[in-house]
């Protein structure tokens, strides 16, 4: 790990890398996905898996990858709630030879079944035996939903996962059937289907905990999977962010600037706008040797250890809508959105280019280089502080290494590859025990944190405020207030699990709580 320590020191001293994103996650970030919520990827996460009793400096054996879609789901919003769209192809892509093209893909497709089409709601249940019509034995309400065979799970979804490997010498910009060398559908040992976890609409209707456990599948090949509705793990004062970066005034007396005590605290001093909302997730845990080019677990100083990850959603090329019948879909799939690092599309790419970015391939990202070299959002924040905040001047070449394979994430000798938005992860860096993990990732001295992959608890908002706007990786900018920029939301509103799938339960539709400014845990209104 000497290489990693030396690279990290160089990283801190010379400002070798910075995030090109700022302030929020990718919730409805482009015109095309503002109109197509089901295809909207909110977040991508990728990290070396850890356990509740993780030992320090112990290499990992698996990688967890999470793709979240369909933002800001209100768990009380029945009667249909939030099924995955059967007409969307959900994909998780892996680049393991540093050319920003797909070497391995996990393709996920969903199917929907209505178990009792005459019932007006998607979820219904009560007690051990349900409820009968008064004075009769006619069942009107099914029993509480505790498994996937209960008819109260009226709208029930299953899904398939196909692992696809592509040719190394392909020449296509998109993944084509001609380039496929292996395609394997993942299956349960007993041949049963994968069921999607429904939203937690309330304690009378379902035992969500039992369903969560049943929906977490561990396969014979070492892969684990979960798909369904969970707590949205992103945390941010979204309302203040989109009020033209109108962050709260906390202990420092400067809006959007934390004190040392606030910065170190594992609590929130402002409203987590995403609190109480759910999101649809696809979570995979995959043995590292299935993802690397060599088929082995590589050490952190090996160029083969670092992989690139991104997610996409695609729809059939043609949709025909009939006035009285369901729509029909046909033709090859065409990409609607993609995502690697958080927020690049949302607050870096100009609105006139957002749809092009969404539908293009990572290998073509050089066309967007001007947005990285001089992000307009940086000038917005600088102007708002009226000269009190000094930021690096353009061209911001310190931002480019995030979109290439470079130190301190990738080992020396790793091909840089083309400019491309990929979430890069060095699979050889050991996971950090939770007790010593930093929400600030790499700039907090935690080698296993963002932007070396991204864990659920990594505070990408504060990291990117300080790095992309404040320029703290350059010595002359690593000072107050640049190194204390933050929105005051340090943690998620509920605790994460400490093992796969790591995600927290969907808020209860009956009892969910959105934490607002002015109430306990929501921070000040001003």
Could you list some keywords that capture this structure?
disordered N terminus, 10 helices, 5-stranded antiparallel beta sheet, 13% helix, alpha+beta, 526 residues
Structure, briefly:
With 526 residues, the protein is α+β, with helices and mostly antiparallel strands.
Walkthrough of the structure:
With 526 residues, the protein is α+β, with helices and mostly antiparallel strands. It has one domain. Helix content is 13%, strand content 22%. The chain is built from 10 helices and 15 strands. The protein has helices spanning 2-14, 31-34, 208-215, 238-241, 260-264, 344-347, 354-359, 369-373, 376-384, 460-469, and strands spanning 41-48, 62-73, 89-95, 104-114, 131-132, 139-141, 155-166, 180-185, 194-195, 217-218, 224-231, 278-287, 306-320, 328-339, 423-426. The strands form 3 sheets. Strands 3, 4, 7, 8, 9, 13, 14 and 15 form an 8-stranded antiparallel beta sheet that branches. The chain has a 5-stranded antiparallel beta sheet with strand order 1-2-12-11-10. It starts with a helix and ends in a 57-residue tail after the last helix. Mean pLDDT is 89; it is low at 2-24.
**What is the tally of beta strands?**
15
Distance between the termini: 46 Å
Approximate strand percentage: 15-25%
Compressed to H and E, one letter per element, the order equals HHEEEEEEEEEHEEHHEEEHHHHEH
- How much helicity do the residues have? 10-25%
3D shape: globular
Biggest pleated sheet: 8 strands, antiparallel
Number of structurally distinct domains: 1
Q: Number of DSSP helices?
A: 10
Round the mean pLDDT to the nearest integer and report it. 89
Structural class of the secondary structure composition? Answer: alpha+beta
The parts where pLDDT drops under 50 for at least 5 residues are: 2-24
- Based on CA atoms alone, the radius of gyration comes out at 23 Å
